[in-house]
Write a structure and sequence with these properties.
Elements: E1 23-29, H1 42-51, E2 55-59, E3 65-70, H2 76-91, E4 97-101, H3 102-110, E5 125-130, H4 136-142, E6 151-155, E7 158-162, H5 174-181, E8 185-189, H6 190-200
Antiparallel strand pairs: 1-3, 1-4, 2-3, 5-7, 5-8, 6-7
Helix pairs in contact: 3-6
């Protein structure tokens, strides 16, 4: 008796490729387009970010704020180093860059210790963003400084500033915090910070 050839139906398998969702970030640049130094047109800066493979790029005002998304999220310092190297290569400027995720920006705004206090002018608020959290020794050192009526509070990677006389007149500058905390710093007023959160949250 001859055996029968049994043909089994072909089974096709769907291969599912896992695609990481695009993660939003903001790059906050230090010291560009100020007093004629480190001039970088926003259109050229946006093109540079596109060249790095980032998506959904939006720039906000000339001081250097870039919202972008990436499907390959990495540590903030890794992204910052990549952007800094690209700026050096493209524009021949050494520009410090600080990176924040959407969640970090939300937390930075929510943690503002001055909000809700009596007699506070919201127009005088600023946040100084730090590249990393300062060490304990640096925090102890800077706590000895006091420049009333200006006030500052440091929480993790943010310095919350209240400068009733205006940020342009305070001693609590980026350079002050960089020297005392040994980390890169750059500052934005609260209006700008809120706008950046709106843009990054779209």
């Amino acid at each position: 008796m001859k055996g029968k050839l049994i043909e089994y139906p072909k089974i096709s398998y769907l291969l599912h490729q896992t695609i990481s969702p695009m993660q939003p970030y903001i790059a906050i640049l230090r010291g560009i387009n100020v007093s004629g130094h480190n001039k970088i047109p926003m259109l050229e800066l946006k093109a540079m970010f596109e060249g790095l493979g980032y998506k959904n790029i939006v720039t906000y005002i000339q001081s250097g704020n870039v919202i972008f998304k990436t499907a390959k999220p990495k540590d903030d310092t890794v992204i910052a180093s990549k952007v800094e190297a690209a700026i050096k290569h493209t524009f021949n400027y050494t520009v410090p860059v600080i990176i924040r995720s959407l969640q970090e920006m939300e937390t930075a705004i929510a943690n503002n210790p001055f909000i809700g206090q009596d007699g506070i002018d919201i127009e005088k608020f600023h946040i100084t963003f730090l590249a990393s959290a300062p060490d304990t020794a640096s925090l102890e050192k800077i706590s000895q400084y006091d420049y009333p009526p200006d006030k500052f509070v440091i929480l993790q990677k943010e310095v919350y500033l209240y400068c009733p006389g205006g940020y342009g007149n305070t001693k609590l500058s980026n350079t002050f915090f960089e020297n005392k905390l040994n980390v890169t710093a750059t500052t934005r007023n609260l209006k700008t910070v809120n706008k950046l959160l709106q843009l990054i949250d779209k």
